Amino acid sequence: MVNNHEEEIGVVTLVxxxxxxxxxxxxxxxxxxxxxxxxxxxxxxDEEESEEAIILKxxxxxxxxxxxxxxxxxxxxxxxADAWQELIEEEE
Length: 92
Hints:
Layout: E1 3-5, E2 11-15, E3 21-32, E4 35-42, E5 54-60, E6 66-69, H1 74-91
Antiparallel strand pairs: 1-3, 2-3, 3-4, 4-5, 5-6
C-alpha cells in the first residue's frame, strides 16, 4: 500500500492564486492505493517560521510530464497524511 522512494532532493516552485512563487524542497514521494504523492517542505528565509510539509498528488500532463495536483478529497488527503506519518514514525 505504501512505498517509500528515495529521490534526489530538488526544488519545486509553485505559484499561488495571487501569482506569487514559493519554493519547496522535494522531501520524498510515497505511493498509496497505486497513486504517487509528493512530500514537499517550504524553503523559508531565516526570519520566517517553519511550516509543515505539504502533500500533492503526482499526475501526468498531456505530454507525459509529471505535474502536481492539490488533493481535493478530504478522505484521500487523510489517508495519504496517515501513511506519511507512519513512515516518519518507522524511521525514528
